[in-house]
Amino acid sequence: YKMSTQQTLKVFVTRRIPQEGMQILQNSGMCNLSVWDSDEPVPRAELLQGVAGAHGLICLLSDKIDAEVLDAAGPNLKVISTLSVGFDHLAIDEIKKRGIRVGYTPDVLTDATAELTVALLLATCRRLPEGVEEVKNGGWSTWKPLWLCGYGLSGSTVGVIGLGRIGLAIARRLKPFGVKRLLYTGRQPKPQAQEIDGEYVPLDTLVRESDFVVVSCSLTPDTQGLCDKTFFGKMKKTAIFINTSRGAVVNQEDLFEALSSGQIAAAGLDVTTPEPLPTDHPLLTLKNCVVLPHIGSATYSTRGVMSELTANNLLAGLTGSEMPTELKL
Ligand code: NDP
Ligand code: DGY
To answer: Which residue out of 102, 111, 165, 216 has the highest number of ligand 1 atoms within 8 Å of its CB and is therefore the one to mutate?
Structure first.
């Protein structure tokens, strides 16, 4: 009896997700699974149709879950589990109002994302994509004293905006490169910063004094558009800007202006607005801008574990038990 009642719990999954998570959902025997069986985002109309009557929803950061989606889902919806640590795509107020619980994937992607951030930083400051391109296009004529020179971490000042899980993991990895000062900003000083000799400073100080500005905060109304003309105007002309948080933290027109006018040295972005960035976007015409396609957490094992956690959060939400990682609303 119990099984057949449980079998009726409808779960909508907005994308093909790694099999680790699918297996858990299938083995639970409690879900009537409906999957948007594609590697591409679910079209809005299909999303609205797919969630109708669902008890659980598994979504990705590319799915905007707002009042319209929640209304389309209706009163059955108990739990939303996102395959991401970022939750700026979820209308939290609307979700809270309806008493829906939310699962997300903190911690399990911290190492992979910090690693990618370091890779992007080094690729940007040492001009790796340019160098690779020159080898291929015949631009490599001989060893030249000032050709493809960049900036190094040794003896530098690094500023981390948002010393959260990922920000701290980035700082830990950068310190051994010989970073002299590690500055950070945020809403309040962090005790964990001691471990990396981090100095809590006002944003203005961080932006003015850093040789590398690394953005790893969450996207909120406060951080939206934080990196604008004024911000880039305070940075050193030799400084490097790195963003692996969310594209909307940056005003891209202002960044383009700062990069093309030589106001800052270079930028490395793993996140943009929109995603994908159109191939004719002005930022892509710049040699001093390295853009990656949002691959911060993209290792096989990390994505597998994220999928597992997303499934387990969902099941806990469906059964009304404790989630491995619930977002406190
Ligand atoms: P955390 O919540 O641990 O860290 C976010 C940090 O941002 C917190 O320390 C928070 O401070 C800080 N913050 C919030 N508001 C501000 C502000 N106004 N100024 C400065 N700092 C602020 O999350 P994670 O480290 O796990 O993840 C951070 C973000 O990284 C995610 O939200 C996501 O957007 C992005 N991300 C990107 C990935 C990629 O593929 N490129 C992969 C994974 C995550 P406080 O502690 O005071 O709230
Ligand atoms: C997240 O989890 O928020 C990232 O952007 C993708 O892993």
So the answer is: 216
Distance between CA atoms of residues 112 and 108, nearest Å: 8
In this structure, the residue with its CA closest to atom 37 of ligand 1 is 245
User: For the chain, how are helix, strand and coil distributed in percent, rounded to 5?
Assistant: 40, 15, 45
Ligand nearest to the CA of 159: 1
CA distances from 268 to 177, 225, 309 (A): 18, 17, 30
Residue 192 DSSP symbol: G
* pLDDT tens sequence across 2-11: 445 556 899 9
Is 233 in contact with 262 (CB distance < 8 Å)?
no
* Ligand with minimal distance to 84 CA: 2
Rounded to the nearest angstrom, the distance between the alpha carbon of 218 and the centre of ligand 1 is: 3
Is 83's C-beta closer than 6 angstroms to any atom of ligand 2? Answer: no
SS3 161: strand
Angle at CA of residue 186, ends 184 and 188, nearest 5°: 105
Does ligand 2 come within 6 angstroms of the Cβ of 271?
no
Measured CA to CA, the distance from residue 223 to residue 260 in angstroms comes to: 24
* pTM of the predicted model as reported, rounded to 2 decimal places: 0.97
- Which residue, chain included where needed, has tokens 């160098």? 131
How crowded is residue 58: how many other Cβ atoms within 10 Å of its Cβ? 29
Interface ipTM above 0.95: yes
Q: Say if residue 145's pLDDT is above 70.
A: yes
Q: What is the mean pLDDT of residues 306-316?
A: 98
Helical pair 165-174 and 110-125, crossing angle rounded to 10 deg: 50
Task: Check residue 8 and give its pLDDT.
Answer: 84
| Structure confidence by residue, pLDDT tens digits, 56-104 | 999 999 999 999 999 999 999 999 999 999 999 999 999 999 999 999 9
Rounded to the nearest angstrom, the distance between the alpha carbon of 288 and the centre of ligand 1 is 25
Asked whether the predicted pLDDT for residue 31 surpasses 90, the reply is yes
Alpha helices in 143-241 (DSSP H): 165-174, 203-209, 229-234
**Structure-block tokens of residue 210:** 């850093």
Confidence at residue 233, expressed as pLDDT on a 0 to 100 scale: 98
